[in-house]
Q: What sequence folds into this?
């Protein structure tokens, strides 16, 4: 019974984590989070790299 309770807690935490991650990818995109996903998925860049965002001047 204790094992089932522990497993339930672990699954609840995973669900909450997935819901949070999903919320970062829906209506208001969190560009920092997307960048993290890209770096992890495609092994792009190094862990402590500094990120510089250059915005194009429309004028």
A:
């Amino acid at each position: 019974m204790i094992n089932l309770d522990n497993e339930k807690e672990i699954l609840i935490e995973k669900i909450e984590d997935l819901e949070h991650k999903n919320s970062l990818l829906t209506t208001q995109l969190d560009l920092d989070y997307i960048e993290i996903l890209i770096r992890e998925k495609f092994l792009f860049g190094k862990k402590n790299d500094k990120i510089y965002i250059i915005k194009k001047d429309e004028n």
Observations:
- The mean pLDDT is 79.
- The CA atoms of residues 24 and 32 lie 10 Å apart.
- Residues 1-59 form one domain.
